[in-house]
């Protein structure tokens, strides 16, 4: 997996229900989590590849001194071992994530 940001929705008024339908149709096992307004997620890395979907609100990630803004409809693939940190937006965030084993 390579670090990559892309859209899961073609429209910018996407909704959580739309994302749930997509994930379920693709039989993706996922977890839902929320971040409160301005919540900080300290620097960390995972032993697995992770795909992150923003369903509501916003999230700002920092990876390798690069800031990546996520809005509803955005997806981010994060390779295993990638150090990252995040900050939920002023309205908080609702995100979904899926993990997969690192193939390396």
Biggest β-sheet description: 7 strands, antiparallel
Radius of gyration: 13 Å
Q: Number of helical segments?
A: 1
Oligomer: single chain
> What is the share of helical residues?
under 10%
Choose one word for the global shape.
globular
Let me know the average pLDDT: 93
Distance between the termini: 10 Å
**Strand share of the residues?**
over 45%
Could you state the order of secondary-structure elements as H and E?
EHEEEEEE
By DSSP, the count of extended strands is 7
Which consecutive residue ranges, at least 5 long each, have pLDDT under 50? none
- Secondary-structure class: mainly beta
Summarize the structure.
This protein has one helix at 16-25, and strands at 4-7, 31-35, 40-44, 49-63, 66-70, 74-78, 84-100. With 104 residues, it is mostly beta strands.
Task: Write up this protein.
By secondary structure, this protein is mainly beta. It is 10% helix and 54% strand. It contains one helix and seven strands; from the N terminus they run βαββββββ. Strands 1, 2, 3, 4, 5, 6 and 7 form a seven-stranded antiparallel beta sheet that branches. Strand 4 (49-63) and strand 5 form a beta hairpin.
């Amino acid at each position: 997996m390579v670090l990559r940001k892309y859209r899961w929705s073609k429209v910018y008024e996407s909704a959580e229900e739309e994302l749930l339908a997509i994930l379920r149709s693709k039989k993706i096992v996922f977890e839902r989590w929320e971040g409160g307004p301005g919540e900080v997620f300290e620097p960390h890395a995972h032993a697995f590849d992770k795909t992150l979907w923003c369903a509501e609100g916003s999230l700002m990630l920092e990876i390798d001194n690069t800031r990546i803004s996520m809005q509803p409809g955005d997806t981010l693939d994060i390779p295993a071992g990638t150090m990252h940190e995040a900050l939920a937006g002023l309205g908080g965030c609702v995100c979904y994530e899926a993990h997969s084993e690192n193939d390396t």
